[in-house]
């Protein structure tokens, strides 16, 4: 009986993904739905289907598990020419879970690079893109289902308080700046220690991996809805060594967006805009050795000119995601122009590399297969 069940299990584990892969390829890939905000499952399903349909140019990597055991996934996008070790643009979205437009813009970016590859191939000639479209899935699910304005992770802090602000959890002047960073019940809580959150550790490990392999060029973190391009430092009012370069790229992005939709985007060094505090991923990326690091605070203003901030109505998702793509494309074009392969990069590492690597997660199907093959072997030996 067990052997029959396991035999069926192994067959399903092997045949099901193959059949699905053929079906998705026949359909020419997944449709990106931008008529509504996608659920966590909807985002994962879209990524799975896209990776199946375009396996020569997109690899979907399991990069970690959240506190509530959801998958953290990263799309690794190339032009399929087989050249390894290209420089990388690393983009993440939804570190703050209530900023619902950011995963939509990240998914549209993946769509533009993978499905509309021909139109955007210049952005992939000498560069790969690594994109985490949902960096805080636990918070995103909680924001969608329970408390819309939820911004943080879902780790318990004791005393019926939950969650750490991922963009305060990085090891740069951690917990310094203002009192709420130390309040476990506040939405600015910086965590119980630097990198207490697995989601922040995952982003950190990706950054260090790219720096170690000398591929890191630009870190771009998507937020809403301040209509700004921010560059480091946040923790310090001093200028970064390549401030002019950051400022030029930010103004180029703002200009491209203004030409396209009329939306006004301002460019700032963050500390000069809103004071200094510690723990941000943007500062950490620069300290880890990325030459360029930005936060893009996308617009949350609808076409009716109403400021919807974090939750623009569904009818505006596509328009705002397209506007953000105009910006993201400008960031990339300018970064690539500034850092062609001929320009050597001294990855100036001002923070230590972590000793612990992110755990590797195996797919469920392959796990079922392995366990059952072992079980079949065991029963045949015992018989
Ligand atoms: Zn934010």
Name the descriptors:
binds zinc ion, Aminopeptidase, 383 residues, 8-stranded mixed beta sheet, single chain, 40% helix, 11 helices, alpha/beta
Describe this structure in words.
- The protein has helices at residues 2-27, 40-53, 101-114, 117-120, 137-145, 198-212, 243-261, 270-274, 281-288, 317-338, 364-382, and strands spanning 58-65, 71-77, 87-93, 127-132, 216-224, 228-231, 266-269, 292-298.
- With 383 residues, the protein is of the alpha/beta class.
- Helix 1 packs across helix 2 (40-53), helix 1 packs antiparallel against helix 11 (364-382) and helix 7 runs antiparallel to helix 10.
- The protein starts with a helix and ends with a helix.
- Residues 357-383 have low confidence and may be disordered.
- The chain is globular.
- The chain has a single domain, classed as Aminopeptidase (3-Layer(aba) Sandwich).
- Helices cover 40% and strands 14% of the residues.
- It contains 11 helices and 8 strands.
- The structure holds zinc ion.
- Zinc ion is lined by residues 96, 99, 223.
Q: What's the end-to-end separation, in Å? A: 14 Å
The CATH topology name reads: Aminopeptidase
Instruction: Label the CATH architecture.
Output: 3-Layer(aba) Sandwich
CATH superfamily: Zn peptidases
Largest sheet: 8 strands, mixed
What's a concise summary of this model?
The chain is an alpha/beta fold and 383 residues long.
Indicate the topology.
Elements: H1 2-27, H2 40-53, E1 58-65, E2 71-77, E3 87-93, H3 101-114, H4 117-120, E4 127-132, H5 137-145, H6 198-212, E5 216-224, E6 228-231, H7 243-261, E7 266-269, H8 270-274, H9 281-288, E8 292-298, H10 317-338, H11 364-382
Parallel strand pairs: 3-4, 3-5, 5-8, 6-7
Antiparallel strand pairs: 1-2, 2-4, 6-8
Helix pairs in contact: 1-2, 1-11, 3-10, 6-9, 7-10
GO molecular function, one term: metallocarboxypeptidase activity
Family: Belongs to the peptidase M14 family.
Protein name: Peptidase M14 domain-containing protein
């Amino acid at each position: 009986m067990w052997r029959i069940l396991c035999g069926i299990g192994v067959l399903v584990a092997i045949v099901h993904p193959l059949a699905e892969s053929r079906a998705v390829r026949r359909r020419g890939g997944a449709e990106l739905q931008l008529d509504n905000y996608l659920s966590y499952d909807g985002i994962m399903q879209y990524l799975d289907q896209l990776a199946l349909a375009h396996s020569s140019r997109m690899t979907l990597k399991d990069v970690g598990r959240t506190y509530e055991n959801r998958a953290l996934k990263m799309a690794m996008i190339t032009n399929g020419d087989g050249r390894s070790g290209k420089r990388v643009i690393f983009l993440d979205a939804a570190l703050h879970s209530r900023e619902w437009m950011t995963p939509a813009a990240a998914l549209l970016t993946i769509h533009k690079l993978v499905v509309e590859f021909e139109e955007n191939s210049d952005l992939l000639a000498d560069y790969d893109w690594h994109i985490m479209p949902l960096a805080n899935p636990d918070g995103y699910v909680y924001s969608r289902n329970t408390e819309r304005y939820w911004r943080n992770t879902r780790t318990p802090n004791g005393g019926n308080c939950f969650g750490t602000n991922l963009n305060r959890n990085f090891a740069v002047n951690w917990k310094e700046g203002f009192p709420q960073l130390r309040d476990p019940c506040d939405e600015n809580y910086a965590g119980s220690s630097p990198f207490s959150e697995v989601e922040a550790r995952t982003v950190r490990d990706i950054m260090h991996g790219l720096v170690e392999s000398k591929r890191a060029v630009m870190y771009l973190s998507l937020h809403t809805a301040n209509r700004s391009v921010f560059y480091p430092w946040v923790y310090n009012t001093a200028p970064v060594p390549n401030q002019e370069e950051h400022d030029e790229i930010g103004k180029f992005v703002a200009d491209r967006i203004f030409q396209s939709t009329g939306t006004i985007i301002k460019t700032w060094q963050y500390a000069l805009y809103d004071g200094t505090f510690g723990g941000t991923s943007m500062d950490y990326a620069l300290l880890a050795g990325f030459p360029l690091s930005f936060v893009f605070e996308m617009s949350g203003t609808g076409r009716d000119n109403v400021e919807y901030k974090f939750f623009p109505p569904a009818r505006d998702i596509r328009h705002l995601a397209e506007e953000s793509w105009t910006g993201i494309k400008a960031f990339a074009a300018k970064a690539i122009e500034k850092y062609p392969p001929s320009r050597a990069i001294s990855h100036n590492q001002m923070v230590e590399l972590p000793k612990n690597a992110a755990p590797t997660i195996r797919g469920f199907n392959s796990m079922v297969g392995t366990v059952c093959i072992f079980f079949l072997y065991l029963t045949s030996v015992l018989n």
